[in-house]
């Protein structure tokens, strides 16, 4: 993959892991432990805990912390644990990030402060505040469809100077922006695809892999898309990317994580229960998801 000036948290595929709930709407830690084992046995390269897919925004502060601590304990160093600790309140993000570092998370995933629609200066000050408050490597998370703000190149350029800001999860869907980040910050900012349908394109621009939703149900195959690319089998990587494209699209047929949690429920990995405002799938969309899962022998 070439030289890189900072710590590499992982190469390949890291799963943005769902958070399973029980019938009483509490976190189901037995199922959580089983999901972690399923991922590691499937050859996954890292786990993101309490991100968007993990419904971090509907967890209480106590649950959020316990999920991170629990995951670190269960993983026991087998793969990197990346804690989703971003917030629309920088002080809270700092507090949660400090806790994640204290309990042994390997890295932090910081979404840009949502709802507030911060200016470029505000984004820089917020991310640097968390970087200075903590001692673990940081992955920035750009998902403007959810936050209302795209992290501009000028912000990436400035943040890449910090020794602990080492990577970005790019979920803007804008390949031109990914190319610009690679060109401007290539030796100081690793790039991970934030979209499963863009793994190969992002890696072709020097990306290190993906933070994936698909890998919740197909950890081995998502890992293989990345590994084949790294080993020079770009045709094999592309073949897998396109083979699973319909399934990937159906995992986003409704807002994430509704479809992927439903898929995990259909596979018997955990309950499909979610917390409002997330709810069960529309029947027509559910039929499409189930059909694409059957096509790949998942159910």
Essential attributes:
alpha/beta; single chain
In whole angstroms, the N-to-C terminal distance is 36 Å
Biggest sheet statistics: 8 strands, parallel, barrel
* Oligomerization category of the chains in this entry: single chain
The percentage helix is 40-55%
Mean pLDDT: 96
SSE order, one letter for each helix or strand: EHEHEHEHEHHEHEHEHHHHH
- If you compute it from the alpha carbons, what radius of gyration comes out, rounded to the nearest whole angstrom? 18 Å
Brief summary:
By secondary structure, the protein is of the alpha/beta class. Helices cover 44% and strands 12% of the residues. Helix 3 packs parallel to helix 4, helix 9 runs antiparallel to helix 10 and helix 12 packs across helix 13.
